[in-house]
Specification:
78 residues; four-stranded mixed sheet; Glutaredoxin-like; alpha+beta; Glutaredoxin; Thioredoxin-like_sf; 24% strand
Length: 78
Amino acid sequence: MAHQVTVMTRNGCSSCVKAEQDVERICGELGVPWTTADVDSDPEWRAEYGDRVPVILVDDAEHGYWSVDEQRLRAALS
């Protein structure tokens, strides 16, 4: 099964920028598609993730937040 990673982010979030860079590098190495989604674009996302961005989702399930745990993410994607 192919995995999909989503970084829940918001404008002006420096931690989000760092998480996106980490996810881009890791997913690039592993050939896993990834995308970002702005939590402020959807009221449900803002309610769910707003205080914890960046939130990393793997296959639409919450994997982690605030930063990327590289070893854990690699394990989830391999």
